[in-house]
Each structure stands twice: as structure tokens, then as C-alpha cells.
Amino acid sequence: MAKLFDHQHFIDYLNKGSTEVDGYLQSGSAALIWSLFDIQDELNITGNVAEIGVYHGKLFIFLCHALNQGERAYAIDVFDSEPEIQGIQTQDDKDLFSAKNLIANLAAQGIGDEVVKIITANSGKLAVPELRDKLDGDQVRLFSIDGDHSRDGVRHDLNLAAETTRETGIIIVDDLFNSLCPSNTEGIIDFFREDNSAWTPIAIAASNGPIKTGAAKLFVAHKSRAMIYKAYLRLLNRDDFKLADTFLGEENVLIFDFQSHPVKQPLDSMVRLSVARFLEQQ
């Protein structure tokens, strides 16, 4: 697989480019997502990336760095089409929260419209067949959910993601346990208890900064792939692994807590051997 961006481009965005884009992305979450890039490359998992709730693109641009040649990224948001939802009152506000602003942020990082498809829509009004059509099929391998934080809203978005993400893929859900939007966690719980039987939580990235920079993220995998993802994640982020606990019906959900700068280990021969030995014992 030929990566769309080289490693230095990715590191430059992590260290500098991301600081120039407004939004929310903590270093702990970034470390785990980076590990997911490596895991999917290692397992030859291909496909597109998508995000509901893109804002100015801070995380979305990060996700674009997972892409291989021929893959695409889908940005789904209301942008300035429904100003009342976002509290947009002035032209300056409208300009900032717009597809045009996202395009400018993408261009500043060398990402053009041949790579990204912007979908200006309220995901809460989309049914699965309509979203599938907009995503050009069921080809998503990384799907971030950071849109409507109401109980029904996040539940709806999770159902959309579960129906359009490949079984080999990962769903990332933002703001788990965020005290500023408690109903968001209620919606996540509703999805797992009432709607879903195929997907399961595998890891939680604890908040490691001021709440205004973002909150905990929940990582979700198809049950058929949960064990292998957890095995790799635990090793690649072993310095920040805190404990494993039962959550939403899944045993041994990995919990990562970041007391200092996160450490992301390389996926090397030692990691490969350790994962292989672990899976042989299961």
C-alpha cells in the first residue's frame, strides 16, 4: 500500500500544522489513533475515512494521514447550512464555520478536493441508505463520531457508522464522560444496550488536558476483530496503559491514562511476535 502522505508530512502536522487549526484533539487520543493507523497498515486493512462533526478539521486532517493512494476522506457536517444549530449570528461566524473554511485548512496542509469529499448535511436527518450513497458505498475503515451530542443524536450517528463501516474498521466516539454534555454518554450507552449486537468497545483514551481541548474518546471495533485490535493497542501504547475493565458488556476494555507526554511505540518485530503468541493462546 502506498501512503498518500509521507511520514514527515504526518509528523509536521502533529507538531505544527495541527496547532494552526481550531478544534479539539488531545495528545493521548492522537497517540492511540496513530497506533490504529499502524495496525490497519500491518493487517492490510484498506478503505476510506469519515467524520461526522468536522468543525474546522483538526481531527479530520489528522485522519486524512491514514489514507493510501486511491482512498478518500468524507467530511460530514451542517457547516453554515443550519446557522441556528451552531448559534451562528454574524457573517464572520458563518465564514469560520463553513465548507470554504475547511477547504482552506485542508489546502494549507496540502490536501485537495481529489482526496476529500465534503458532505454538507445534518446527519440526524440522514438514513443509512442515503449516507451510504453519499459515502460511495460501505468502504469506511475509520469513522469518527463528533456531531450532535444529544442522547438521540449520538445514538443515531453511531447507528449510521455501524452500518457503513467495514467489519475490519474502527469507530471513534468523542466526548465519553464529558461533564459538559452528559447526554452524549447516555446515547452511547443506549446504542450498545438497545441497538447494537455486532460492535463492541475496545479502548478508552482518558482526557489528558483542559476540558476545552477535548475529552475522553471511546474506540469501537467489530466483535470479530476486537481481540486483535486490543492486543496491538495495548503493546503500542504500553507506557500509558492503565488497566482493563468491563464496560458496556465487553470484558477487558483497555483504559489509557496519560500522566505525562504520551508514548507511542513502533510496530516492530517484538510487537508482532507478542501479538502472535497471545492470539495462539486464545
What does this structure look like?
The chain is an alpha/beta fold. The chain has a single domain, classed as Rossmann fold, CATH 3.40.50. It has eleven helices and nine strands. A nine-stranded mixed β-sheet has the order 3-2-1-4-5-7-6-9-8, with helices on both faces. Helix 10 packs antiparallel against helix 11. The longest helix has 16 residues. The radius of gyration is 18 Å and the shape is globular. The model has no long low-confidence stretch (mean pLDDT 93).
Summarize the structure.
With 282 residues, the chain is α/β, with parallel strands linked by helices. The chain has a single domain (24-280), classed as Vaccinia Virus protein VP39 (Rossmann fold, 3-Layer(aba) Sandwich). The protein contains eleven helices and nine strands.
Give the tally of β-strands. Answer: 9
* Helix/strand/pairing category: alpha/beta
Enumerate the strands of the largest sheet in spatial order, edge to edge or round the barrel.
3-2-1-4-5-7-6-9-8
Shape designation: globular
Give the termini distance in whole angstroms.
30 Å
Rg estimate, integer Å: 18 Å
For this structure, what is the CATH class? Alpha Beta
Helix content: 25-40%
- In the CATH hierarchy, the third-tier topology is known as Rossmann fold
Helix/strand order? HHEHEHHHEHEHEHEEHEEH
Instruction: Characterize the main sheet.
Output: 9 strands, mixed
Q: Architecture in CATH? A: 3-Layer(aba) Sandwich
Helical run tally: 11
Poorly predicted ranges: none
Write down the overall mean pLDDT: 93
CATH superfamily: Vaccinia Virus protein VP39
Query: How many structural domains are formed by the residues?
Result: 1
